[in-house]
Amino acid sequence: EAKRRHGGVCAYDPSLDTGDTSRLTLQSELRQGIERGELVVFYQPKIDVATRRPCGAEALVRWQHPTRGLLGPDAFIPLAEESGLIDMVTADVLDQALAQLGRWTELGHQLPVSVNVPARSLTDEAFPETIVAALARHGVPPKLLTLEMTESAVVTDMERAGEVLRRLREHGVHISIDDFGTGYSSIAHLRDMPPHELKIDRSFVMKMCENSRDETIVRAVVDLAKNLRLRVVAEGVENEDALRALGDLGCDEAQGYHISRPLPAAELTAWLGRSEM
Ligand code: C2E
Ligand code: CA
Ligand code: CA
Ligand code: CA
């Protein structure tokens, strides 16, 4: 059936329901791939909008597949979430990102790192200890780690999720609500489980200078964040006009292709050298 949809070519896209066989194949390939160290982490810098200096980097996973090339997260994160492999992915990315943060610190760069975590992890009572153990293993101060929470499903056990978030905060880890304004991310969370940061979804930022509705939404989220004393980050900043408009609105941090694409660690190190001169 999938073959018909793709004109005779069996597209390698596990997010489509291409049948049990290919999903199972990909699932076991992914497990093996993680064990063999095939997950690679790229880093996309964020800048302070007011000073334009680098103020952090987001870790974005890719899979260096032995035969299919470099796969983006959209090709395997949904499957990892469904199959329970996501915890292995999170642990691997966290480990690589904290090791890299340590290397940047040795080079004299103070660069907090953000790691993506599905909100579902908040229902795992052992999650705070996993994070704290990883920080200790790499000797990284908790305040240099931000967890970007994305909701791809409703978190039903809100009580437990709130408790896990509270413990993470107590340890000093920073919490960000990713893709704010889309999907299941809800304003009620700002009251019940206050984060440190809101990240405005790129779908609102990308065309904010051409579309006045997008601009209005970005302005409203920035104002909401300011009034709640939260930091606010805009992602998907693709041009100078958007960066300037965000400055006028009082947005704290910006991330996007206009600043830099996600880069392998070594290339980001070079970028940091250039942008801190
Ligand atoms: P996200 O967390 O919203 O990450 C931002 C995505 O926007 C990245 O896509 C990034 O490359 C892209 N992007 C950055 N700047 C721009 C821009 O100026 N314009 C446009 N059009 N796009 C921009 P990427 O790397 O393909 O990641 C896609 C999603 O996969 C992420 O969205 C995140 O939800 C998920 N993801 C990535 N790494 C991980 C991970 O380690 N764990 C988990 N659970 N999810 C991850
Ligand atoms: Ca993110
Ligand atoms: Ca996002
Ligand atoms: Ca997203």
From TrEMBL:
All residue ranges annotated as the EAL domain in the record: 23-276
Signal peptide coordinates: none
Source taxon at top rank: Bacteria
Protein name listed in UniProt: Putative diguanylate cyclase/phosphodiesterase
Organism: Actinoplanes missouriensis (strain ATCC 14538 / DSM 43046 / CBS 188.64 / JCM 3121 / NBRC 102363 / NCIMB 12654 / NRRL B-3342 / UNCC 431)
Full-sequence portion shown in this chain: 376 to 652 of 657
